[in-house]
Amino acid sequence: MAYALALFVSRRPVHFWLGLTGLVAFPIYILARIVTNLMEWGVHTYGQ
């Protein structure tokens, strides 16, 4: 498995790094959306 990953990284490094960036950025984006929705709900429910 590690050998296959090393081959992939050596053959397509840009593709690997873009994919890895997406895997890291997407959960951060989802968490940010959840947090902003909770904050908006809290402001709406409890006032400013």
Structural commentary:
With 48 residues, the chain is mainly α. The protein has one domain (2-46). The chain has helices at 2-11, 13-46. Helix 1 packs across helix 2 (13-46). The model has no long low-confidence stretch (mean pLDDT 94).
Feature tags:
about 90% helix, 2 helices, about 50 residues, single chain, rod-shaped, mainly alpha
Helix and strand arrangement:
Elements: H1 2-11, H2 13-46
**What is the helix/strand order?**
HH
Strand element count: 0
Tally of individual helices:
2
What fraction strand?
Answer: under 5%
- Spans of 5+ residues with little confidence (pLDDT < 50)? none
Shape: rod-shaped
User: How is the quaternary structure best described?
Assistant: single chain
How is the main sheet built? Answer: none
- Classification by helices and strands: mainly alpha
Mean model confidence by pLDDT: 94
The structural domain count equals 1
Span of the ends, CA to CA: 53 Å
**Helical content, roughly?**
over 70%
Radius of gyration, in Å, reads 19 Å
Keywords: Membrane, Plasmid, Transmembrane, Transmembrane helix
